[in-house]
Amino acid sequence: MKSNPTRRRFLKLSIGGLIGVTLGGKQLIKSASAADLPHLAEDDAQAAALKYVHASPDSEKHCANCALIQGADGEEWRPCALFPGKVVNANGWCSAYAPKPSS
User: Fold this and answer.
1) How many independent structural domains does the chain possess?
2) Cα–Cα distance between 67 and 41 in angstroms, integer?
3) Alpha helices in the chain (DSSP H)
4) pLDDT score of 101
5) How confident is the model at residue 21 (pLDDT cuts 50, 70, 90)?
6) Where does the High potential iron-sulfur proteins family profile domain lie (predicted)?
7) CA-CA distance, 88 to 37, in Å (whole number)?
8) How far is residue 83's CA from residue 90's CA, in Å, rounded to a whole number?
9) Are 7 and 19 members of one domain?
């Protein structure tokens, strides 16, 4: 059976494009910084449901030492797994607080 060069070329370009979009998408996600994301408002529906506040009432329990926070230590506003597309205050707190495991 003879292969069709047009079909082969189409498949190569399709697979190459898919890989390019996948890797390019990951690069775009990595290049977006926390500074580009909006701050989570305390009156946001999800934030209110989880009782999120910008300033933790307990000095030992805050977003900066929660297992759900992402981003680099030392940043004031950082992404959180619970609030995609927004950043939380590192000094904040919510009812889903989970302490980071000790190393």
Assistant:
1) 2
2) 21
3) 5-31, 45-49
4) 87
5) low
6) 34-102
7) 10
8) 13
9) yes
